[in-house]
Amino acid sequence: MHHFEKIQEIIQNAITGENFTEEPRALYEPISYSLNTGGKRLRPALLLMAVDLYSSDIESFVLPALGIEIFHNFTLVHDDIMDNASLRRNQPTVHAKWDTNTAILSGDAMFIKAYEYILKYEGRKAHAIYRIFNRSAMRVCEGQQYDMNFETSSDVTEKEYLHMIELKTAELIACSLKIGALIGGSDDEEADQLFEFGKNLGMAFQLQDDYLDSFGDEQAFGKNIGGDILADKKTYLLIKAYEKADARDREKLDQLIGNKNIDSQSKIMQVLDIYYRLGIERITAQKAEQYFNDALEILDNLSKTNEEKRPLTELAHSMMKRKK
Known about the structure:
By secondary structure, this protein is mainly α. The protein has helices at about 5-15, 25-35, 40-55, 60-85, 95, 100-120, 125-150, 160-185, 190-215, 220, 225-230, 235-245, 245-255, 265-280, 280-300, 305-320; strands at about 85-90, 90. It starts with a helix and ends with a helix.
């Protein structure tokens, strides 16, 4: 069995070996830049780790894994435009380094390239895999639209938020595992189990990200605490705070959220004070843990030995210990 670090190396070598130097260079250089600014290669790694459960020949299936990674980076390029973000992985975003029009067009090209790499797979259940990828790609876009809708909505519910992150974050993680399992030779039932494992892991991963943005260690987290608060993002924490707040705390939140005239640190501290008082730290951590435990239970029921599942189990645990 291959561990995550070895599979990361295989994927990185494959990315390095790909040559995005076609003309016009203004279209292709941002693609190469986006793919080489770091990232853990989590989704393509999960695809190959799922292959590895059923086949020892993982290097023959690197191209669809690259398709997943290119698609993921396409979504980041366009998300950064929508969020007007200037940094990604401590590097200038594509639209900041070039311009918005270039980023839009290069992102479109990445979307096409992603399909090109996925379609290079012509093995077992190829057409089913194309359909799975297409469905997940659309669901990621749906999740992004819901996230944008939430920016102008004052009454986002917990159910609506969880549905959004299932689409935007968890779907591609789950899709990667399901495609990898089918490529490797699993039956449909086991592929569906791995999809559910990935979905629950993705939900836990995003909830933990929400948690860390407010309650993480700033040095270990790698970015300033409270970014979501300053951006007035409808995170799980904020939604639960409004749900649990009495009239006084609700009024205070109304005064803080959307207020651009208040000192940044004061806004963060006042919102965090409400979060602590309402137990939002504990509530969010428990919700993430619930999804994580559900993921591990699904993986435990997979008809593979514990040793065969060990790389996935270890990766899942490492994902939930990040940046604490």
